[in-house]
Amino acid sequence: MFDFSKRGEVSPSLQPAKPSSATPSSGDTPQRPVIIAVTGPMAAGKNYICKQLEKEGWASVDADLLVHDAIEIAKDRILNTFTPYAEEHNIKIARTDGSIDRRALGQLLFAIPELLKVQESIVYPIITKWIDDFISEHEKTIINATVLYKTPDILNRCEKILFVTAPLLTRLHRARTRDHLPYRQIFRRFHAQRNLMKEYLKSGIPVEIINNR
Question: Which are the contacts of 186, defined by CB distance < 8 A and separation ≥ 6?
Fold first, then answer.
């Protein structure tokens, strides 16, 4: 177990291999990219851990941020699919400029949880393609994602899962300071992620816990 709150060290098993000075022959097999997942509940400090690893030569992609871009790419389909439900709950998911109000969309998904899988079926194929492209461009890749287990095609390519955790009160303070969300909404997200570790243990991929106090 690593405590990145006290030191910025990286596990020797995660140190990027030094590039070989030998020039591969035309018949050599290209080196397989090394991929790890950094995950954990809301406000545990996943971004901090990724930045520490980036200093050691890793390239990281934030899948949670890609969701935002994918929603905009697929906004027409999302609006056509979700607007009738939003109107029933008096929620406006489209801004005046035509973009999607992600906070309002999140409110709708909390109100009708079964719509979450519908959204995932729309945006996850886009995200998977983007991550595939990112992996192909780097030798050492970190995938920073909370619910990577929902895209097993990507998760199963990872050699290790770094599960970042932190005390509840620490996470609550970070979430409140960073996102300025109501406490009720923060606790709902915390509750929704209560079984996150179990989902990753099911994968059979080695899981290493990082206590980011």
Answer: 42, 172, 175, 176, 179
Q: What are phi and psi of 35, to 5 degrees?
A: -130, 130
Query: Which residues are 161's β-sheet partners?
Result: 37, 207
Which of 186, 184, 185 is closest to 172 using CA atoms?
186
Contact 61, 131 (CB under 8 A): yes
pTM of structure: 0.84
Task: Please say whether the beta carbons of 109 and 115 come within 8 A.
Answer: yes
Residue 142 CA to residue 35 CA, distance in Å, equals 6
Residue 130 backbone dihedrals phi, psi, to 5 degrees: -65, -45
The whole-angstrom separation of Cα 96 and Cα 194 is 36
Q: What's the pLDDT tens digit per position in 45-76?
A: 999 999 999 999 999 999 999 999 999 999 99
